[in-house]
Fold Diaminopimelate decarboxylase.
Amino acid sequence: ELAESPAVRRLSDWDAAALQELVDDYGSPLYVLDLERVRENYRRLESAFPDAEILYAVKANALSDVLEALSEEGAGLECASAGEVKRALEASESGADVHYTAVNPPARDLDWVVDAWEAYPDLTITVGAEDTIDRLEERGYDGRLCLRVNPGIGAGHHEKVQTGAAAKFGVPAERAVDVLADAAERGFDVVGIHAHVGSGVSSDQLDDHREFVSRMGDLARSVESEIGGLEFVDVGGGFGVPYREDKEPLDLEAVAEATRDALGEVDARLTVEPGRYFVADAGVLLTDVNTVKEARDTLAVGVDAGMTTLLRPAMYDAYHPIRNLTAALEGDAGESVRETVPQTIAGPICESGDVFCSDRDLPASERGDVLAIGNAGAYGYEMANQYNSRPRPASVVLESETRRASDDGDTARLARRRETFDDVTRPETNRSRSADGDA
Ligand code: LLP
């Protein structure tokens, strides 16, 4: 089965006609997520890390359909907020699979999670500051505790996503043994150590990964000898996926081997918690072309998705592949017959940074075309926002015929409706506005 699941799904592997039809049915912009692909990605990672506990980093895509599919495959859920813990507990069978990684946790989050712990005593809280331990103790928490350390080394696709050395994350690894000893003495159930080096780690950063896991191995051995055994060592997520068409996938086996070597004889289970790896290439964002104009130095193509729909290009200069589905469908065998011209594809937001690509060679766009933006399944909808009072888009999931709930012959299902103008203004309390405006 895995042999049939390629390590990478390129944008050109998607069925252009089927995607175009989804826009006809559900409108634009539209996120599409293939749940079967999410499951395949999970199984591939599981076969590279057969003995590890695998948690899914919910922040990459928190859609309940994704959480349910991955829970069903056997993943635990790593959460970055009380809101994510709430979703995770709803999706998973038990709290034992749920880890809450508290980063400068607001009081409201700690209150909520400690409350939930009463009902789910097996959940794990990962803390990255001694303050957080004090605050948990004040709330009567003495459950499962994991310490996030700052290993002093970062990696990842952009400096903004390198967490391993960033001041805000974790307790410096040198202090970890003391902090854990103190927590154990205070009655917490000390179960693990954790660190996350960064996000989007590629094969050419394998040496950084090796150095990182070897520091984790050293730390685990010190903890074992000075405090006692741990249940798990969590080395975070961060496994990169190729966004450029010519880039090779991460060598997962090499990552797994380096990790096993570094932990060596440590008597604790390995835990990994990737997010992007499971969902990135399972998702595309579809968007309509509404404007084509000769700008001063480039052909400017306006689309209805923008930085409010997919923030990554504006925030990290992230590259996402783009395919003109309409042009592809005009030619034979999905090859466009249109002339290729450099173009700048931009959204409707009043910011000059609201562009998906600059001067990229693509088939000449025409008004009414549908474009697909690839690798949009991770940190896509999750980072969408309502800037410019723009409602967030709809999301459709694709399911295999055997799993689909309905028997209408359709494998696509609306998973999250498009927001309305009312969704944007609903929290406002201005008395001069009627409670139910127009969508
Ligand atoms: N564990 C922890 C503690 C994390 O902070 C993260 C990501 C993960 C796991 C999952 O990392 P992944 O496997 O998905 O790389 N918005 C950025 C990515 C930010 C990631 C933050 N932390 C982006 O779009 O590239």
Remarks:
- The mean pLDDT is 94.
